[in-house]
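Quick one: co-fold with magnesium ion.
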Amino acid sequence: MRPQQVTMERKDAEREAVFELRNVSVFYGSQKAVNDVSMDIYRNTITALIGPSGCGKSTLLRSLNRMNDLIPDARVEGEVLYQGADMYSPRVNPVQVRKKIGMVFQRPNPFPKSIYDNVAFGPRTLGMTGDMDEIVERALRGAALWDDVKDRLKDNAYGMSGGQQQRLCIARAIATEPEVILMDEPCSALDPVSTGRIEDLMLELKERFTIVVVTHNMQQAARVSDMTAFLMVQMGADEHSRWGELVEYDETNRIFTNPADERTDNYVSGRIG
Amino acid sequence: MTTRVNEAGDVSRPSLKASSPRYGEKLIKAFLFVCAGLSVLVTTAIVISLLVPTVDFFTEVSITEFLFGTEWRPGRGTQTSYGVLPIVVGTLNITLIALVVAIPVGLLSAFYLSEYANPRLRKIVKPVLEVLAGIPTVAIGLFALYFLKPFFADLLPWVDLDGLFSQGVAGIAVGLMIVPLVASVAEDAMRAVPPGLREGAYALGATKLRVSLKVVFPAAISGIVAACVLAASRAIGETMVVLIAAGASPKLIGPWEFGESVLTMTAYIGRTATGDIATGTITYKTIFAVGALLFVMTLIMNLISIRLVRRFREVYE
Ligand SMILES: Nc1ncnc2c1ncn2[C@@H]1O[C@H](COP(=O)(O)OP(=O)(O)OP(=O)(O)O)[C@@H](O)[C@H]1O
Ligand SMILES: [Mg+2]
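Sure, here it is.
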């Protein structure tokens, strides 16, 4: 037990928190969806959010790049610090936040434009200088898509397979050189082969980016992530109020082999959920 | 588990055959076919009824004189001249002025409603737009004559608006009339763009304006072009407003001559096709020839727009 303790501490010292969540609650109107989550998310790691449907994984993820601002009556309470600064301070422009924190969605959502224009959309939005062809090529290579599409960059993105479309969305997200990539069930619409390729890609990308991924797939969380957060639905006093809470957050290894909380154990071993 | 019992009481092997010969369905199908056939038939009948007197008309007046002549004086004894250009130009002027008003205002309203307005406001405004689209055109004509005209006379003192009629005022009135149509159809098209596309763009740090212009607009372009074409068709075919507010002088003038009165093709037909013209006379045939030309103009416009849509369409899914 003792040696492990030491390595843990050493790792903690090395790790640099990109996000610090302090008592974060998210509401849709008067309905609380996520209750009182506190956790740190570390640089150049893959953090997985797992938990049963409706426990607020997507909601929590979307509070990390202020996507919830787009929902008219969504509200975030508590503090989300991004590199030490309050992301929800009135002086922060959500548009600027999203330029630094990219996102990949559950269903591949390329624009109905050419493959090239899809990747170039972000860099153009940011007004990035430099050779656009080069930027596009670098992003496509980064998403392991270059060899598949280099001869048809002008073709419409909708002619690609689902897996390719999702890798295009990843290319689109990394083209702007963000610091963090949020992924909401990026493989749930894909077959096992495409899923495998995206998982490999995630492991490659974590050298350059910080990744937070929501997944329903236990094996996937175990395979790719360094840290895992387990959320669960809690019932309120009356039967209408239910919200998600963070049950346990630790190194993935520990969550899957020796979790501290019994509910985590039950969930990851497939007994509930 | 329960097993369904079919007609024959055969529990073990459910049959895939229909339980009845379903005459009712066949009857409905036949009825629907007749309805569909009827609408095709009616359209054909309209075209033929336009064509027959038109062909007759061209036995008396040459096509070149009709299409390229610049004097429109039908049935005026020795002065008679059947050059249709002035009333074509009048129609186009009104249409152009109307579209200059309706397309920007309509599209901007559509953008506002679809991308900026909060859902509660949209729920109120959308039905109001649809009601506005149904205001009787006579009312719009009166509005143009008794409100818009004096209004513009005050607003633009340097423009000669002394006469009662003005193509500018009539065109603007037609434009205002079709704003709700443009806004409503374009808004539908923009709403139909999958929310996932918007989210994808917002997640890349795009502003609302950029999302509207670079993602929603191109993805909705076919619907937006459709809205503009519908608007143009409405403007070309509009009769009552121009009859009331545009005047009756066939003139070959540019659309920028705001205060001038013009005669449009529809207004000519409208004021000529009264109960007392005898069938078979040249006047009778003239209104059909003008009607047929109007029909061809709208047809060409629709064909062009179909091509445009095909070219610029961004297909999603
Ligand atoms: N736009 C919204 N408006 C109102 N309530 C919402 C909205 N989005 C989500 N919710 C509610 O918030 C709660 C959490 O939803 P969320 O989508 O974050 O769960 P999830 O863990 O991602 O579920 P899943 O695994 O099914 O994707 C749910 O009860 C859901 O009904
Ligand atoms: Mg979700």
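If it helps, The pocket of magnesium ion (ligand 2) is lined by residues A 57-58, 184, 214 (CB under 6 Å).
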